[in-house]
Design brief:
Tetrahydropterin Synthase, Chain A, 5 domains, 3-stranded antiparallel β-sheet, Band-7_stomatin-like, rod-shaped, Slipin family protein, 368 residues
Length: 368
């Protein structure tokens, strides 16, 4: 008994019998013989083969109706429908109906990491492409180096970089190109006279050759060691007293020594300085005692100079009064006035020499 089947508009149908392809049906109404199976397909959807697709494609009618896309191993295909990105096709064979949608593809060779294909960045950020894309960001203050399987490939300037996720190992080394500061605190060093002191030192530097810096493992730690060695070399050539006196003169010497050696690390040293010299407790106490003694000696010297000047002034005054009787009288009156200020009342006899009477009161008379 035959059955009637209807193939809708924009659909195709496969007629199978005993798992064998019989024919392809287009839009319309058909009679189907007993034992035949009809499978309908929406032509706007991918073709899903009910049998091995390689067998079905042996039929010329079906092969003509389908667009077949073969994706090789280590390859990727971006599928576009009517110019819009649709999906990612991994290795395998895919089939789509012709006639409704215009399909275009971009083939990606996953044997190379560079994205040379005309792929929009927005598509690279889509979730279905995330497993196939590597993204690296080099900030505006950084430089980067790209290595493939441990081999240097190229420098990366600031920006965002997209690479295909190939079997090869990609590594991006980044370095801050701004001026950086290195702090060295509490570095113990022996002076020429065997005084054990501690130094606080700072160094300003920047990475000038990132390739050299990366080739030197932990270049910043190596730079720290260079600073240590330069400090010890310079400081050990001075006694403690010389070091305290020439502290500012040592920093340029340390800078010169570090700067020359740092170039091999790909680093340019801008400045270097000794911030603090920390003395041991016993030395600090001795230095404080010396300082106090020096200040006392300075104070005593000043006092002696003042006393000498005062004595010299008195001597000069005495000589003037000896030579000038009027000046002597004025000086007597000055002292009498100063003494009288401290007395509430004084009784004197009128008619006599007032100054002479006051003199007799305040100045003891010598016994004959």
């Amino acid at each position: 008994m035959t059955l009637r089947t209807n193939v809708a508009a924009y659909h195709k149908a496969l007629v199978l019998k005993n798992n064998r392809f019989v024919k392809l049906l287009a839009e319309g109404k058909y009679w189907v013989a007993p034992g035949e199976t009809v499978i309908s397909y929406d032509m706007a959807q991918p073709f899903v083969a009910p049998l091995d697709i390689n067998i079905l494609l042996q039929e010329p009618a079906l092969a003509e109706a389908l667009l077949v896309i073969d994706v090789k191993q280590n390859e990727l295909v971006l599928l576009y429908e009517n110019g819009l990105f649709k999906s990612v096709l991994a290795a395998g064979r895919y089939a789509f109906w012709k006639g409704i949608i215009t399909y275009t593809t971009i083939s990606i060779d996953l044997g190379k990491y560079e994205i040379t294909e005309a792929v929009d960045r927005a598509i690279l950020l889509r979730q279905d492409l995330v497993p196939y894309v590597r993204v690296y960001t080099v900030e505006s203050y950084e430089q980067g180096l790209l290595y493939e399987d441990g081999k240097f490939r190229k420098k990366l300037e600031p920006g965002i970089y997209y690479f295909w996720r190939t079997p090869a190992a990609l590594t991006v080394y980044k370095s801050d190109t701004r001026q950086l500061q290195m702090e060295m605190n509490g570095q113990e060093i022996l002076t020429k006279d065997k005084a054990n002191i501690r130094l606080n030192c700072s160094l300003q530097y920047k990475v000038s050759d990132i390739l050299k810096a990366v080739e030197n493992k932990e270049y910043d730690k190596q730079l720290y060691v260079l600073l240590q060695l330069a400090l010890r070399e310079q400081v050990s050539a001075y006694t403690l007293d010389e070091l305290l006196d020439k502290r500012d003169a040592i920093s340029p010497l340390v800078l010169s020594a570090v700067k020359e050696r740092a170039e091999a690390l790909g680093v340019t040293v801008a400045d270097c300085g000794i911030r603090d010299i920390i003395l041991p407790g016993d030395v600090k106490e001795i230095m404080n005692q010396v300082l106090v003694a020096e200040k006392k000696a300075q104070a005593n010297s000043i006092m002696r100079r003042e006393e000498t000047a005062s004595t010299r002034s008195l001597l000069n005054t005495a000589r003037l009064m000896e030579e000038n009787e009027m000046l002597f009288k004025l000086k007597e009156m000055e002292y009498v006035e100063k003494i009288a200020d401290k007395i509430s009342s004084i009784s004197v006899n009128g008619g006599g020499d007032l100054v002479g009477q006051l003199k007799q009161i305040f100045i003891p008379q010598k016994k004959g």
